[in-house]
Design goal:
It is a single chain. This protein has about 400 residues and is an alpha/beta fold. Helix content is about 35%, strand content about 15%. The chain has 15 helices and 17 strands. Strands 5-6-4-1-7-8 form a six-stranded parallel β-sheet, sandwiched between helices. The longest helix is centred in the first third of the chain and has 15 residues. The protein starts with a helix and ends with a helix.
Length: about 400
């Protein structure tokens, strides 16, 4: 895989460099609530601009249905990218389409060392099409905007999309700094692991994590389970879980995993207590919620588990304390509400306090770290791609990485 440093050494002055970033940031209307993914691509964009390239940044945002939708416009992202770049490469230009007149004229007008953002790639149905010809046709149009391709959208490399998979085949290509860093980190979680190796998994659905659990049962020393997915495990143990999140169809698989963990000597740890309530909290007003703490085998039939309890927090922190490697993906509860953020905060603090190599696996976990006020530099690495990270750990071939191979 060619690196951006090799590309820069060859010279990029005056060349149009298409940077496929992952700028899929959370928005509240037109307000960006977490700009972590924009910051993550800055080193690549700055290096190219400073070397005199004409930088064309492209990304998806959200899930528009193959047509323009103002709710998913990248306009606020372009503005924020300009603020973060400051005076190093001037104001960021914005094209109001992907491959139309605005994109062509915006790119044509770029001076050396300047940056443009084109509109949301998913406004074109060819970006995500499963038809190779349709996807390829869109990639052909994108290729007319550039001389060189740099892949730096790690959060999208597990997608076989036009800008991720097809476009690199049409242009000289290299991996950006972010992708290089992410791959190096993931190799430390798969090929060169320091032990004890502890994996903390949370989030809503156990089905989202089945494949990675399957893979980690042969690699991790401990698996700590929290979040909504924990209740399927607790149900598999025969516990009442009330109206908590539950995927009954996954109980046989979860049961088999617990049996295999015991057989393989992998410590699979479940919550011993949880915070429960009869009503889901109001995430808009953040109004105080009524809740109680109960043992995980005593959840009332009419209540829902919303966070791991204080004894579980202490237990999980103790399981992390002596680790040499920790990977965490998924919050422990409804962290968006202050009454149910304690479990997620406890895991983050345990990682901060640990001397291990710690990796926060993207998505909600990365957002939680920032939302709860932790210093990002206190962690070994905060990934920008939750789904991509998980699929890498599962051992899958990621289309976007394969496309960057020479």
């Amino acid at each position: 895989m060619k690196t951006i440093d090799e590309l820069l050494a060859e010279g990029v002055t005056g060349k149009r460099v298409f940077v496929r970033a992952d700028l899929n940031v959370p928005l509240d209307g037109t307000t960006i609530t977490d700009d972590g993914r924009i910051r993550a691509v800055l080193p690549t964009v700055k290096a190219l601009a400073d070397a005199g390239a004409r930088v064309v940044v492209a990304s998806h945002l959200g899930r528009p249905k193959g047509a323009p939708d103002s709710a998913f416009s990248l306009a606020p992202v372009a503005a924020r990218l300009g603020e973060l770049l400051e005076s190093s490469s001037g104001e960021v230009a914005f094209a109001t389409d992907t491959v139309g007149e605005s994109a062509r004229s915006t790119v044509d007008a770029l001076a050396d060392g300047r940056v443009a953002v084109i509109e949301n790639l998913r406004f074109n149905p060819g970006e995500t099409s499963k038809d190779d010809a349709e996807r390829g046709a869109f990639a052909d149009e994108l290729a007319t905007l550039a001389d060189v391709y740099v892949g730096d959208g790690f959060g999208a490399v597990h997608r076989k999309h036009a800008s991720v998979y097809d476009l690199p085949a049409r242009l000289p290509h290299a991996a950006g700094y972010l992708i290089a860093t992410e791959v190096a980190v993931l190799k430390k979680l798969t090929d060169d692991v320091r032990r004890p190796y502890v994996v903390v998994l949370g989030g809503a659905k156990v089905s989202d994590k089945l494949a990675v659990i399957d893979a980690l049962l042969g690699k991790a020393d401990r698996l700590l389970i929290g979040g909504g997915m924990a209740y399927t495990f607790l149900k598999a143990k025969g516990y009442e879980v009330g109206i908590s999140l539950l995927q009954e169809d996954q109980i046989p698989t979860v049961t088999e995993y617990m049996e295999r963990a015991e057989k393989n000597g992998v410590e699979l740890v479940l919550p011993v207590d949880v915070l429960v309530s009869s009503e889901f909290p109001d995430l808009k007003t953040k109004a105080p919620a009524e809740y109680t703490t109960v043992d995980s085998d005593k959840i009332p039939s009419d209540e829902e588990g919303l966070d791991i309890g204080p004894r579980t927090r202490e237990l999980y922190a103790s399981k992390i304390a002596d680790a040499e490697t920790v990977f965490w993906n998924g919050p422990m509860g409804v962290f968006e509400h202050p009454d149910f953020a304690g479990g997620t905060r406890a895991i983050a603090q345990a990682l901060v306090d640990s001397s291990a190599f710690t990796v926060v696996g993207g998505g909600d976990s990365a957002a939680a770290v920032r939302t709860l006020g932790f210093d990002e530099n206190a962690f070994g690495h905060i990934s920008t791609g939750g789904g991509a990270s998980l699929e890498y750990l599962e051992g899958k071939t990621l289309p976007g990485l394969a496309a960057l191979e020479d």
